[in-house]
Design brief:
About 85% of the residues lie in helices and about 0% in strands. The two termini are about 50 Å apart. The chain is rod-shaped, with a radius of gyration of 32 Å.
Length: about 110
């Protein structure tokens, strides 16, 4: 530390002022970097939480739709066979099963 003091004493007033500004900039940069890291961690946490909530919501919606479709199929078959089930409903059921499988296969974190 004494060496820094001795070397700064050899500086001209302009060099000392410049050194002071560099030290202030360095300090401000370190503080900004620290604040940025905190903000980044908080943002990443919020995004991860929202993704988890969206995934949970999608799984609930898929389960609800699957339950409805299963009930609809059973009702239609009891009412007169699969001829009453429109092809679009069968396709919707296949797409629903695909969506459920895709959601289940997604890695969690």
């Amino acid at each position: 530390m004494d060496e820094d003091k001795l070397s700064s004493e050899r500086l001209t007033p302009m060099e000392r002022a410049l050194l002071h500004y560099v030290e202030r900039l360095t300090s401000a940069l370190e503080q900004s970097a620290s604040q940025f890291e905190v903000l980044e961690q908080r943002s990443t946490g919020l995004i991860a939480e929202r993704q988890r909530l969206l995934s949970d919501c999608m799984m609930s919606l898929i389960a609800s739709q699957a339950s409805f479709m299963t009930g609809f199929r059973a009702f239609a078959k009891r009412s007169g066979g699969s001829a009453l089930i429109p092809p679009e409903m069968e396709e919707a059921f296949r797409l629903l099963e695909t969506a459920g499988e895709a959601m289940t296969a997604m890695p969690s974190k």
